[in-house]
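Hi, here's the filled form for the chain we discussed.

Project: internal
Contact: R.S.
Residues: 142
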Amino acid sequence: MTTPADEIRTVIDRLAQATAAKNAAAVTASYGPAPVVFSLAPPLQAPEDSDGEGLQSWFDTWTGPIGYDLGPLSVAADGDVAFAHGLAHMTGTKVDGETPDLWFRATYGLRRIAGAWKVVHEHHSTPFYMDGSFKAAVDLKP
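And the returned structure, exactly as it came back:
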């Protein structure tokens, strides 16, 4: 028998696999209605993208699959609400030849809707250097 934590890890693993495969429809299928998404890219809050069109546009800036690996997740669930967080690692090749290798923080809020766990809040972030430069600390590794 699976636990809520197991079910949540499966949902987030599928979300990560869909991202790696650049499958916008599968990513958006992991979301509940009107999810709040704070992604790495501007603006501060991503606009609603229920059809995945904006996400697909971003996927199209990559050649081949995106390396998108989630480390161990910490999961807390109570009733129909859950939170999960961990570190994620993104690698790959962009169409302009850039080869990102980025670790970032990932936090997910989920709700059980009609018996299935859905991501209703997603937050990705990187820290910034507080030395006055305010540059994103994209060179950090766990």
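Let me know if anything looks off before we file it.
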